[in-house]
Amino acid sequence: MTTLEAVATYLPSRSVPIRSIADELGLDNAQVRVFERFYGLSHILREPDGTVADLMLAAAGKMEELRGREHRIRYVIQARTMPVVAPYPVNPVHDVRRILGLDHAEAFAVFHHACASGLLAVELSGRLLEADGDPDALALVFTGEKTFTPAARTVPGTAVNGEASAAVLVGLGGSRDRVLSYATRTYGRFNAGLSLADAELGEFQQIYPDALAEVMLAAVDRAGLTLKDVDLVLPHNVNRVSWVRLCKLIGLPLDRVFLDNIPVTGHCFCADPFLNYRSARDLGRLNPGDRYLMAAVGLGATFSAMVLEH
């Protein structure tokens, strides 16, 4: 069974009020107020001098569980939202592999599920490790990106993107943070993402809560559980109002969704569920035996959920 052997996160020290970068984001005062008062957004994090490789290395540097186990790493996977995160011929995941002394490992990136690619990478890691047949082998998954272009800084009318990173050590057969199920569905007719026509964008916004609810409930059912058995939901941090609506739709108490990071980190691409995992653990919101659900939505449009047992 796939397990999360460790999760380490890196949060840049620079906290930026979204109001202070309104011009950069193309927001007027009314739109800023909507983000602040209605969506629950306040600040984002930025690493002004670092590259995406620096973000990955900073997260790896906080993972004590990696020390002495480097020889067991079989795969190094960068899960990202955007197809291109650095100018050619730079390849950040290969650079990180080399710097960490993991040249013996296979290195590649996945991005086809956009902001849901982090959950895809964990699922893929488990499948690859199981197929290899070595119970001691591990995969190292990285999430988190730079807001290096205007298109990367915001999801118009929905979220403001920040910079943070997470490193996830994936193994087989551990006793903690066992993956119980995974569900995903892609609505290909919305593949244009940020370039959707107004009519298609309106349709995507209309199906969004039902589509997310569908994969969450599917993951819960595949785990042999009911929604009442889920102790905590670790969401993607696009905004607060979308989760309020989702909770009303499926009858989930809002206090079982970890929303603490939304006002302080913004939406950090694929890293969100793992940032929330680390924060929830540090705050004592996850106890041994708790069942929790990670959820993410990627433009394109992929809806994904994963149920785990802590």
From TrEMBL:
Keyword Oxidoreductase among UniProt keywords: no
Alphabetized UniProt keyword annotations: Acyltransferase, Transferase
Ranges in coiled-coil conformation: none
Pfam name, any one: ACP_syn_III_C
Example GO molecular function: acyltransferase activity
Record-linked PANTHER family: 3-OXOACYL-[ACYL-CARRIER-PROTEIN] SYNTHASE 3 (PTHR34069), BETA-KETOACYL-[ACYL-CARRIER-PROTEIN] SYNTHASE III (PTHR34069:SF2)
Protein name as it appears in the record: 3-oxoacyl-ACP synthase
Organism of provenance: Microbispora oryzae
